[in-house]
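Explain this protein:
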Amino acid sequence: LDRVTFGDVWFCAGQSNMALGLKHTFAEPSAIEALSNAKLDNQLRVFDLAGMDSTHMAATKPDYVLRFPTATQRWMTGSTLISSGHIHAFSSTCLYYGLRLLKRRAESGFAAVPLGLVHGAIGGSVIEAWIDEPTYTSCDGAGKTQGPPRG
């Protein structure tokens, strides 16, 4: 084994508020600047489950969760995310959360623990697709639009 890192992993999933790409936010330049920091580059890794490009934005069910990543998908450091250009489409909410968490840890004197961010959001998906069957059936019926989750 090589390039193995142990640390915390946060799964960033959901609908459009989590899928919004960094390019659609005002603080994109400061996020890119923060990721350019060599020390931070060793602490942060990101992974994009489905590529989250425009073809995924209209999906109604996050079926990709059940598939294994393709050979081209891999964990990326901040510098790789920037150099690949993928940073502009990566979840802004997920990335801002990760950057803030690393900053808070450093300010609080906690040891530098590597942080992994997994982006798995699909904008435009129906909420029912993100709810497991027992939780869904326990609802009183208000707002049910698509029926129980499939799969």
User: Anything to note?
Assistant: Strands lie at 8-14, 44-48, 76-77, 115-121. The longest strand covers residues 8-14.
